[in-house]
Amino acid sequence: MADTLKNVIAQSLECPVCLNTFTDPKILPCSHTYCKTCLENLLECHGNDQMLRCPVCRAETQVPNQEVSKLPANLALRSLIEDMKNQYQFCSNCKSEDKPQAVVYCQDCGRYFCITCNNKHSQWPVFISHEVLAMSEIVSGKVSVRRWRKCRKHPKEDEECFCSDCRRFACFRCVVMEHKDEGHRIIEAAVYESCHMKCVEYLKSKADKKRSCFQKYVDFIDEQKDRVNNVQKQCTDDINNAFEESVRQLTERKELLIGEVKGMTEGVEKELDEMQKSAQEHITHLTTIADVVTNKTKIPLDMDALAAHDTLCQDLQEALKQEDPDYQRPRQSSKKGKSVSFKRNVGMDENGLGKIVNAVAKNIALPIKNSMNDMVSTPDGRMAVGCWAGGVEIFSADGQHQQTIFKDKPINGLRFLSDDRYVLLDGNNITLYTPQYTTLNVMFETLSEGEGECPSLTVDVDDQIYVSYMDAEKIQVFSPAGGKAIREIPCDGYIPVQITNYNDYLITESSDTIRLIDKQGVVKYQLTKSGDSLTAAVSRGNTILIATVKHDVGLVSIDEYTNKLKHVQNLVIDYKIEKNERGPWYTLQQYRSGEIAFCTPDRLYIFH
Asked: What molecular functions are annotated in GO for this chain (predicted)?
């Protein structure tokens, strides 16, 4: 009876998470107790969250600053553990009342033996293969005793069964008396143990694969960071070499240029650092919770331990649902950093050192010179350039001219409806085409050329079609079903040379001014650069891109702005373009893959 009581007490001193004797036990407000280290691991599984969830009852406990050490200690349990450690274990084989102290424990017999009994035990042939542990190693914690699972209600009975509904081990007598009702699913304890271990092994395998997947992602980000760092180093070296060849008065200019390089690359490095940090946190999360769940030293024996392990297994299942990393994000971020270079002045103002260039563009001649009227990204991710001389030219993101469509149609404007139908503006006439280029029998009553010249075209997310007229200074709105305009938007005090849909606004371009107007025509935000030509587009990130062209000297800069026309960052600075004969007429768009397309009347520039 005494041995049985000790086994019961020893089992009660086991942490439900690690299944070992409590170490520095901390008690939660819900009255459940865990090792301090186990609580720290559980808290770490939830990142920087200061809320700790009990694995047994799932009650939440606030842990300020994640300091588990400040939680109250279970002093009674700690004292009981110390008392148990200091108690001698007596031989369970000797029959005398004055039993000698045990020196070994047999894992297979589940009994403690003194020196005499151990000598006899070791000589019996049937017991030679038994696993015997020295008491000194058990007390020091070097080895762990495999407890015999005895029923608490019937100490002489082994718990050979497991109830899947009650989540309890039970002896046969308990099964007959307490688990006989309908709904209780009884299986052999050994079967449960086998299934449990297989589940743990499966989860560990999945966690290892997911961890490996994210480690490859982290390594890939390291490669991208190295490439960006190499670009920064190369630029800095070029600047330093130029500086060393110049005079001391160039110091301020030198520091300014280095600052520009850092400003253009540090943002990219920060983006990559954030991606890497997020992936590394997921690896840590997977590692911590997987290590706790896959502790195979023992099988949970009681209800609390089973509840704790069930909770942890569920947490691991949730962690495994994390999608695999998207390599496109760091690749796109690194492109911005890798495009930075230093261009030194040669044969010009040598004292200026040079300038930082952060864009590399492909320069493509259009099939027809001085004919571009409009440009739009196609539904399949390419770029379509409409020409007034006839035809729409299609270009891939790498600058390849792929096809010409609508060869005989003079194009003033070009857009797409949500079902990929083409909307063409031919003179002042709107025509709809199927994706297979078949004309649709839909008529629109637009203004005549005498009433409203120089029209522009855009389409919103609801497939409403907008046509602006420079001379009439107004915008008509049409349904894709055709007919008369469903309403008109007056342009009081400004001329809508080109229009673009943007969320609940329209972007209007008027030579040197960009305006955001609402759908009633009221100007909400405005940006003016006197003497320059401005053209705008909506980015893939739903910000506003604006190209500023110094037409007389042939330079274009492209900047990103917020939805209130507040400057965000420079994307292209003073890129040299070829002057054209037609004059300052430009369009701007962004490919789905991120490249920026800038078009003059006879050339297409694609910035990476």
From this structure: ubiquitin protein ligase activity; zinc ion binding
